[in-house]
Design a protein that fits this description.
There is one protein chain. With about 90 residues, the protein is an all-alpha fold. It has one domain. It contains four helices and no strands. The longest helix is centred in the middle third of the chain and has 16 residues. It is globular.
Length: about 90
């Protein structure tokens, strides 16, 4: 099916980072992940214990981590930082 319609949506910074991280974790891009979730399609199992080997994904998560460090250090922000650090630490220096 051709994809020609663009839908924009606003989310909080933390939610955007969480969506991106879950998409990466599921091995999907953000668009495919959001479409699948919104349409009730089955999502791939999260690969919590698998280190992220894709250099592009590591770069995106590193940028997200940098952005998180600039936010006020609330509990959700700290949790997101720890989540990202746990996934990129085995393969990329922080």
């Amino acid at each position: 099916m051709a994809k020609g319609t663009i839908i924009k949506l606003r989310v909080a910074a933390e939610d955007g980072l969480a969506i991106r991280a879950k998409a990466v974790e599921s091995g999907m891009n953000v668009s495919a992940f959001v479409r699948s979730a919104a349409l009730g399609r089955r999502l791939p199992c999260a690969r919590q214990s698998v280190a992220i080997a894709d250099a592009e994904a590591v770069a995106a998560l590193t940028m997200a981590l940098s952005a998180l460090r600039k936010l006020p250090q609330t509990e959700p922000v700290i949790a997101a930082q720890l989540w990202i650090e746990a996934r990129i630490a085995p393969i990329a220096p922080l």
